[in-house]
Design goal:
CATH class: Alpha Beta
CATH superfamily: Aldolase class I
Oligomer: single chain
CATH architecture: Alpha-Beta Barrel
Radius of gyration: 18 Å
Number of helices: 14
Low-confidence stretches: none
Mean pLDDT: 93
Number of domains: 1
Distance between the termini: 37 Å
Length: 291
């Protein structure tokens, strides 16, 4: 395989100051903490990064800072998302100066038109040099990557994997039919145990910012003990994410890390505020089950 990582990939939070600017000291602390816990793979500007609220100039500074902190210590994947093919390509061209792997979405017009689908990839691979991972998230990008489209590009040079956040088990199983050619990663944490049944390369997790140990051992434990022995862990994850308000995951994780003194708890004011009661419920559940 052309890519040398599997297992857990931590989708990094973006530490912020009170004025919503990036806290680069906090980013350094977070990276150092995760490296010390044994994390080797990192995604920046992903789902938990608040990248929708970050000016592109700040996004560039995050790429430079993270690459400096992780140099020769971990694998770095940079999220390069946009509704525009041209913007995605320009983001990849910047990111590839600092990392080997770029995660891209497929623009909606390319998802719905076969000719534009091929044109997008032709332009992407002609004009960039990095290894490309596709991000599938129909809630953000309106529909799944079409399987018949994948059949046409699966052998393209430098296309190395897919991060799937469809939350659709049948679709994920279909993606895993390509596991001999592509690395397939599960992004929806409640499904990470079951996904190991389908030759999954690993999982991409936001909760791993706080509890990396919970996810680091999944692949190894599954191979050693099998699915049935891990049912308790799967049930815990399902129940946990039923209690975490979807729109407040970032706020909860930052609050937990702030208690440890790793980052400050500030998050962009476009996000919904977290109540103390909500935080206490999740914190107690995690303490009880991870003790």
């Amino acid at each position: 395989m052309p890519i040398n990582f599997d297992g857990v990939i931590v989708s990094l939070l973006t530490p912020m100051n009170e004025d919503y600017c990036v806290d680069f000291f906090g980013l350094k602390n977070l990276c150092a903490r995760l490296l010390n816990k044994g994390v080797e793979n990192f995604l920046i500007l992903g789902d938990y990064s608040e990248q929708n609220f970050l000016d592109y100039s700040f996004q560039k500074k995050i790429i430079v800072s993270a690459s400096r902190e992780l140099k020769n210590k971990g694998n770095l994947v940079v999220g390069c998302f946009s509704d525009s093919s041209e913007e995605i390509i320009e983001k990849v061209k910047f990111a590839e100066k600092y990392c080997e792997y770029c995660l891209v979405n497929i623009p909606f017009n390319a998802l719905t038109n076969e000719v534009e689908f091929i044109d997008f990839f032709d332009n992407l691979f002609t004009r960039t040099k990095s290894k490309i991972i596709l991000y599938n998230n129909p809630s953000s990008f309106k529909r799944n990557i079409p399987i018949n489209g994948l059949n046409r590009i699966v052998g393209w040079e430098r296309l190395i994997g897919i991060f799937d956040n469809s939350k659709n088990k049948a679709y994920f199983r279909a993606l895993c039919d390509y596991h001999q050619l592509l690395k397939i990663f599960q992004c929806f944490e409640p499904n990470v145990i079951e996904s190991q049944n389908y030759t999954c390369a690993g999982n991409v997790s936001g909760l791993a910012n706080v509890f990396p140990e919970l996810f680091l051992s999944i692949k190894k434990d599954f191979e050693k003990n099998g699915y049935n022995s891990m049912l308790r862990q799967e049930i815990f994850l399902i129940r946990l994410f039923e209690k975490i308000p979807t729109e407040k995951e970032i706020q909860i994780y930052k609050k937990m890390l702030s208690v440890e003194g790793v980052v400050q708890e500030y998050f962009n004011n476009n996000l919904t505020s977290l109540s103390e009661k909500e935080f206490n419920i999740i914190q107690e559940m995690l303490k009880k089950n991870l003790a």
